Amino acid sequence: MAKRSVTASRERTIHTHAELWHASRVVLTSGQKIAKGSVWQFLASAIFTAFAFEAYLNHVGPQIYARWDDVERLSPLAKLDLICHFLDIKLVTQSAELSAIKELFDFRNKIAHGRTRTISDTKVMRPEDVDLYFSDVPRDSWEKLIKDEKFAVRVRKHVETLANRISLAAGDVRGPFAFGLSGGMADQPD
Asked: Residue 152's Cα: distance from chain center in Å?
């Protein structure tokens, strides 16, 4: 009796932007549920949000601009401007939405291109306030943003709103952060 065999194949389209968006939500939710160490969850959520949005721009870009490879090295904000130009999406320069996106990528750049810094402050105070003063440390601007969930929640909201506008203008009925598809098949030779 001859051994039977089956040829199986499978494939999966990975929407990196959707995976990162999901990661952003998961770590944010974790930080909201467990206070201890939550600052690191809020940091991770904000970083994943920035990565997800840039990956989304890189997902949409080639669909609307045939020479996307020529501009892929642009900053995320330049990519956003280009995509909005091609899709005729008006971005209000002083809007909360665009301000949040700019703040998000400024935050991301400070983390990605971090440098060692010394932060100091001096304050005149009552003697009884000295212990409280020394119980905290001077913080960099990016550290102040992740002291609680507000920044991570706010930037996720604005990224989602803008990504939905882009998705709608691009005709993507599944929405901006839909996961990719996977499938497979098995074939038994005659």
From this structure: 10
CA distances from 178 to 15, 38, 128, 167 (A): 8, 27, 55, 11
With beta carbons less than 8 A apart as the criterion, state whether 140 and 117 touch.
yes
- What is the number of residues in the chain? 190
Residues 6 or more apart whose Cβ sits within 8 Å of residue 94: none
- For 121, list phi and psi in degrees, rounded to 5: -150, 160
How many angstroms separate the CA atoms of 25 and 28, rounded?
5
Tens digit of pLDDT for each residue in 63-118? 999 999 999 999 999 999 999 999 999 988 878 999 999 999 999 999 999 999 99
Q: What is the pTM of this model?
A: 0.88
Q: Are 71 and 57 in contact (CB under 8 A)?
A: no
Residue type, 4: R
Q: Are 80 and 141 in contact (CB under 8 A)?
A: no
What does each C-alpha distance from 113 to 109, 116, 118, 119 come to in angstroms?
6, 10, 16, 17
